[in-house]
Amino acid sequence: MLPTPYIKCDYDKVYEPSEDSFLLLDSLEKDLEYLAQKFKNKLALVCEIGPGSGIITTFMIQNHIPTTNNNSVYYAFDINPWALEATLDTVKLNRAKDNDNNNAGSKSSLLEPVQVDLTSSWRSNQIDLLVFNPPYVPSETIPTRPERKEELDTWVDLALEGGKDGMEITNRVLAQLDTILTPNGIAYILFCARNKPEEIIKSMKENGYSNWNIELVKNRKAGWEVLSVYRFSRC
Ligand SMILES: C[S@@+](CC[C@H](N)C(=O)[O-])C[C@H]1O[C@@H](n2cnc3c(N)ncnc32)[C@H](O)[C@@H]1O
């Protein structure tokens, strides 16, 4: 089992890694070989939307996911400015630990944090690997993006609240998958049961995504919630 990155963050400012974060780590670990085959000898452009503390981006950098070499460039896109700082700090902390332990780890990978709403600033069909643990909790509304960095509660609410069925943010990403990913690209996206992922996938298949493989990678009961990670790629 691959080690979980060290995290030291202020959870008044960013989302604290939880069962959902760990399920995504386990899903990526399960698919290590699959990803390595798919991106063998290629330079991969990796993007995590909503890195929060940086746990998943750091894990991918440390383990050279998706390639087995150092041939990836990592982007971290978060609407929360604190999350971008936290992600840089987490990568730095784990680099220092890797150096202390003489592990190759994350030494030379490139990481670019960008404060952005989802992938709105991205050119079409550029991302090879997309990872997203979205705000998936059903809520009446999505909080409005704060004017000021100091409005901590709202930034943290933005990490959780997903509007109707918890799907308003995730739906925006799903609708763009075809234009976000490279032809060979893959996305890992987390859902909770209240998002009704089976219905979402059926509807995607009937509406323009019939030539996509959409597969459950891992699911797990977390308290009273059931979480699932699905993998999206073109057939
Ligand atoms: C559930 S947290 C996941 C954090 C981290 N990836 C993890 O797994 O622990 C969701 C993240 O998405 C970010 N987020 C929410 N809405 C966003 C948007 N419209 N654009 C970019 N990031 C967004 C939040 O700020 C938060 O960092």
Automatic annotation (TrEMBL):
SUPFAM superfamilies: S-adenosyl-L-methionine-dependent methyltransferases. InterPro entries: DNA_methylase_N6_adenine_CS, Euk-Arch_PrmC-MTase, SAM-dependent_MTases_sf. Keywords: Methyltransferase, S-adenosyl-L-methionine, Transferase. It comes from the Eukaryota. One of its GO terms (cellular component) is eRF1 methyltransferase complex. GO terms for molecular function: nucleic acid binding; protein methyltransferase activity; S-adenosylmethionine-dependent methyltransferase activity. The keyword Methyltransferase applies. Coiled coil: none annotated. GO terms for biological process: methylation; regulation of translation; ribosomal large subunit biogenesis. Belongs to the eukaryotic/archaeal PrmC-related family. This is Methyltransferase small domain-containing protein. It comes from Naumovozyma dairenensis (strain ATCC 10597 / BCRC 20456 / CBS 421 / NBRC 0211 / NRRL Y-12639) (Saccharomyces dairenensis).
